[in-house]
From TrEMBL, chain A:
Keywords associated with the record: Molybdenum, Oxidoreductase
Domain Aldehyde oxidase/xanthine dehydrogenase a/b hammerhead: start-end pairs: 17-120
Protein name: Xanthine dehydrogenase family protein molybdopterin-binding subunit
Lineage: Bacteria, Bacillati, Bacillota, Bacilli, Bacillales
SMART domains named in the record: Ald_Xan_dh_C
InterPro entries (alphabetical): Ald_Oxase/Xan_DH_a/b, Ald_Oxase/Xan_DH_a/b_sf, Ald_Oxase/xanthine_DH-like, AldOxase/xan_DH_MoCoBD1, AldOxase/xan_DH_MoCoBD2, AldOxase/xan_DH_Mopterin-bd_sf
From TrEMBL, chain B:
Record carries keyword Metal-binding: yes
Cross-referenced Pfam families: Fer2, Fer2_2
Highest taxon of source: Bacteria
Organism whose genome encodes this protein: Geobacillus jurassicus
Entry keyword set: 2Fe-2S, Iron, Iron-sulfur, Metal-binding, Oxidoreductase
Limits of the 2Fe-2S ferredoxin-type domain: 7-83
Protein name: (2Fe-2S)-binding protein
KW ATP-binding (keyword) present: no
């Protein structure tokens, strides 16, 4: 039937004809436009903001500044939506100018006069933690926060997650060798091709209409209530197709500005649309990290202890960075069995753009640190790095760092992934080979795993309605951000209703008033949660169809089957009713009617999840752990330190592949993003922590022709709770790429390469030593 | 501050003559999108870096954020809305050569022009043309497959 086939995505033809519309494509006569005035300093006191000239400029309707606004933030309220008193990062919004046209708003934005008094800027987590470092938030103790957030007032620590499992001293005592590795990388960016956009309009009856390029339309409602006291029932959020998100559109930022701007112009519709520069710097970014990993192991390479310190560069405001730092801690060891684990994961304030989820949510970051350490351990012990990973691979019966016992369903098959990777890469044939005097080829590998760390009460709902031709509409709160999840939902519904997937239609747009909630389209949880809801909705519809048909066919509902557009008798399919004749109730020849419209309803909520214990980290953060084994083959030029990524491999336990081509696309796309991040992406900061490269000309993602050959395979170990056994796969492709690339290059060059991005200059400096000064 | 002057432009777009009033300083991209409702061309950087706004001007792929609308008077503009069932569109669909779809109109316009101009394009030519656009969702491998298939089909077609 439909599951397991490469069904073309439902919106495919809209997307290749220019018909597909994104938030900023909806133009309206009379809509006002906003321009952001942003800070040229990373840390400064705001002495005054003078908007007189801007307000007098042609077409300007309002200028909004920060006084009197509530603080915002999902875990801890530390961020004014518009800076007031102080700016804490380069690019922070200090005023919003609203005008008739975008050009007028932009011209007037230049007339806003802000007087700053620069303050010393904090440039990295380690710097932020130094004695006497400038404090970003002097009143950390006063911020409102949720129960699972643990800031450390008087410091720059926004949150600390502690993982304590087993006995770390004993673990190191039992070790023959202890290896310590430190890694680091600066913040970078998601670079969704569609920059973020939000519009807001407040109607005379008080309803607030928001349109947003967002992964979290339902969260926008909740936050407008939490921050501004608006009734959630009066907030209606629309989200059309989203032009790439990768976690970067999970946080709520421009929506608040659009709401404030609309309020300032009597509720008229205002559009806030990011320029590329603002999208990269003003809106939240991919988190940076400084980490130290200490592994204790036996002579045979069996891990006895892991002590890990993650110092996440959360930037100026904590928002979702706290959650990212927690997610890395939850899975801190990677997909390996370690009895004794000690991990502190800190979300640290710095004067850099604030961080938010980035595809893999702390896991490619975690993997880069730990997998580099594993390679160093293997080198020290003169063992095969693949063999070390195989020996320690996580299996059912083991426990995770947060002490969840694993079983055949809730963890994928790590040994199988490693085994297949070894075969695909021809690992045993060679790992480093010199092709000529200057050219070296090398391979590197990495393991990866991930569970979701979303709210313990996150839920998802699906509604199915029928059309008079018997076809079905699927209405789900999953946002179509490019992952194809809505098409997969159609496949799931088609499979359950045993019908042609072409006759299952999906509603792409989200309207929070009519679409059932899906918590957020994040964490590779769309197919699992919305899929379960879709199955429940299909079962609900089947039950209703059978009830009506039972009456008409004078048979027990138990004797009926639904499929092929009919409800039929199981033992005599020649006796049937077409679904189209009963989907809106059944009308007897004499005009009497029974039944009424069939509306399938389904929902799913994750079960048995718990917050982490603040002292030990014990707790169940997510329903299952997907695993992967990945590798990279590079060709390095020893003369000029350039390299080419020749091949990239991933073997992922997908549980069950629901749409092969779509799944491959997800994995290869994630790999591409991981390789791009690891090989060339990262913000460059000057000493004052100003971002020097907030443009795609100076911050340069992988382009066509720079891509390697991708080799992807799936292992299928079903998660028995999930629709048809499918595990999340949207992020796993990324997890191992930075580590595998760094491992391959470290082997090729012969020095440990523990920083990202791995540009030729960095490799050159690392090999030549520090005599050439800092990068 | 002076308001910039506006004037009426008559543009030839997708085989139609379209009149539009625009600032003289307005780029083709903004006139297409805001003035004419042709939102297929996407703004991605307004700096010529990403290619999401690519359209054809007299058959040549142009980043419409880098060209003034006024410069296109008297020229033939083709946007993604003007492509009629082109082989490259089919190839993109068949090979899953897009995900979020935002960069897709620009990529397709560029690839379409490449196929029309250089049906014999070799690897280097393909790369030179397509590295003008950024796709953040796919791995480019899918796009490569789609473009090569459409090129191969074009070659067969031109031989007859």
């Amino acid at each position: 039937m439909a599951v397991g086939k490469s069904i073309i995505r439902k919106e495919a033809w809209d997307k290749v004809t220019g018909r597909a519309k994104y938030t900023n494509d909806f133009k309206e006569q009379g809509m006002l436009h906003a321009a952001l005035v942003t800070s040229p300093y990373a840390h400064a006191r705001i002495l005054s903001v003078n908007v007189d000239k801007a307000i007098a400029a042609p077409g300007v309707r309002a200028v909004v500044t920060g006084e009197g606004l509530p603080l915002t933030g999902e875990d801890m309220r530390d961020r004014p939506p518009i800076a007031v008193d102080k700016v804490r990062y380069y690019g922070e919004v200090v005023a919003v100018v609203v005008a008739d046209t975008l050009a007028q708003a932009e011209q007037a934005a230049r007339l806003v006069r802000v007087v700053y008094e620069p303050l010393p800027a904090v440039g990295s987590p380690r710097e932020a933690l130094k004695e006497g470092a400038p404090l970003l938030h002097e009143h950390l103790d006063r911020y409102e926060k949720n129960k699972t957030t643990h800031p450390e007032p008087g410091t720059n620590v926004a949150h600390r997650t502690k993982i304590r499992k087993g006995n770390i001293e004993q673990g190191f005592a039992e070790s023959d060798v202890i290896v310590e590795t430190s890694v680091s990388f600066a913040p970078s960016d998601h670079i969704a091709m569609e920059t973020r956009c939000a519009t807001a309009e407040i109607w005379p009856d008080g309803t607030i209409h928001i349109s947003a390029s967002s992964q979290s339309p339902f969260m926008i409602k909740k936050l407008l209530h939490a921050y501004f006291g608006e009734e959630t029932g009066k907030v209606i959020v629309h989200t059309p197709l989203v032009g790439g998100a990768y976690g970067g559109k999970a946080p709520v930022q421009l929506e608040l500005l659009a709401y404030l701007a609309s309020k300032a112009v009597d509720g008229r519709k205002v559009s806030v649309w990011n320029s590329r520069e603002h999208d990269m710097v003003t809106s939240p970014v991919h988190i940076g990290l400084e980490a130290t990993v200490k592994i204790g192991a036996t002579r045979d390479g069996i891990f006895k202890a892991m002590e890990i310190l993650f110092l996440f560069d959360g930037g100026a405001y904590s928002d979702k960075a706290i959650d990212v730092s927690r997610a890395a801690a939850v899975d801190c060891t990677g997909p390996y069995h370690v009895e004794n684990v000690f991990c502190d994961s800190l979300c640290v304030y710095t004067n850099r753009p604030y961080a938010t989820p980035f595809r893999s949510f702390g896991h490619c970051e975690q993997a880069f640190a730990v997998e580099r350490a594993i390679d160093e351990l293997a080198r020290t012990l003169q063992l095969d790095p693949w063999e070390v990973r195989r020996k320690n691979a996580i299996r059912p019966g083991h426990t995770t760092p947060t002490q969840v016992r694993l079983n055949q369903s809730n963890v994928g098959d790590m040994p199988a992934c490693l085994e297949r990777l070894r075969e695909l890469m021809r690992w045993d044939e060679w790992q480093r080979v010199e092709l000529d005097a200057y050219t070296v080829r090398a391979k590197g590998i990495s393991g990866g795993w991930k569970t979701s760390t979303i709210d313990t009460d996150a839920s998802s709902g699906v509604i199915l309605t029928f059309n008079s031709d018997g076809s079905v509409n699927v209405i789900s709160g999953v946002v179509e951000i490019g992952t194809g999840t809505k098409t997969v939902l159609a496949q799931i519904v088609a499979e359950r209703l045993k019908m042609d997937v072409d006759r299952v239609h999906v509603k792409m747009d989200i309207d929070t008033q009519t679409t059932p909630e899906h918590w957020k389209t994040v964490a590779s949880r769309g197919t699992f949660m919305a899929g379960r809801a879709a199955l429940a909705a299909a079962d609900d519809a089947i039950r209703q169809l059978k009830e009506i048909a039972a009456c008409v066919l004078r048979a027990s509902p138990d004797d009926l089957e639904v499929g092929f557009g009919r409800v039929f008798l199981r033992d005599d399919p020649a006796i049937f009713l077409p679904i189209k004749d009963i989907a809106f109730g059944y009308k007897f020849p004499n005009g009497n009617a029974i039944g009424g419209q069939v509306i399938g309803r389904g929902h799913y909520i994750l079960r048995h999840l718990t917050p982490l214990d603040p002292e030990t980290g014990a707790g169940k953060p997510g329903p299952e752990w997907g695993v992967c084994a990945e590798g990279v083959e590079i060709e390095f030029n020893r003369r000029d330190y350039t390299y080419r990524i020749v091949k990239a491999y991933a073997v992922i336990d997908a549980g069950k592949v629901l749409n092969p081509k779509a799944a491959l696309g997800q994995v290869m796309g994630a790999m591409s993003m991981g390789l791009s991040f690891a090989s060339r992406e990262g913000f460059l900061f000057d000493k004052e922590q100003r971002v020097l490269n907030p443009q795609l000309r100076t911050y340069r993602p992988i382009r066509f022709g720079e891509h390697p050959e991708y080799i992807v395979e799936f292992v299928e170990t079903p998660q028995i709770d999930a629709p048809y056994g499918a595990r999340g796969i949207g992020e796993h492709g990324l997890i191992g790429m930075p580590a595998a690339l760094a491992n391959a290059l470290s082997l090729a060059v012969g020095v440990p390469l523990n920083e990202l991005p791995l540009v030729p200059e960095l490799i050159w400096r690392k090999q030549k030593g520090d005599s050439y000064g800092p990068v | 501050m002076e308001e910039t002057t506006k004037r009426e432009l008559v543009l030839s777009i997708n085989g139609e003559r379209r009149a539009v009033v625009a600032r003289q300083a307005e780029t083709l991209l903004f006139v297409l999108r805001d003035g004419l409702g042709l939102t297929g061309a996407k703004p991605g950087c307004l700096n010529g870096d990403c290619g999401a706004c690519t359209v054809l001007v007299n058959g040549t792929p142009i980043k419409s954020c880098m060209m003034l609308a006024i410069e296109t008077v008297g020229k033939e503009i083709t946007t993604i809305e003007g492509l009629d069932d082109a082989p490259i569109q089919h190839a993109f669909v068949r090979h899953f050569a897009f995900q979020c779809g935002y960069c897709t109109p620009g990529f397709i316009m560029n690839a379409h022009a490449l196929i029309e101009r250089h049906p014999d394009a070799d690897e280097t030519t393909i790369q030179e043309w397509l590295e003008a656009n950024i796709c953040r969702c796919t791995s480019y491998q899918e796009i490569e497959t789609a473009v090569k298939e459409a090129l191969a089909a074009k070659k067969v077609e031109t031989k007859f």
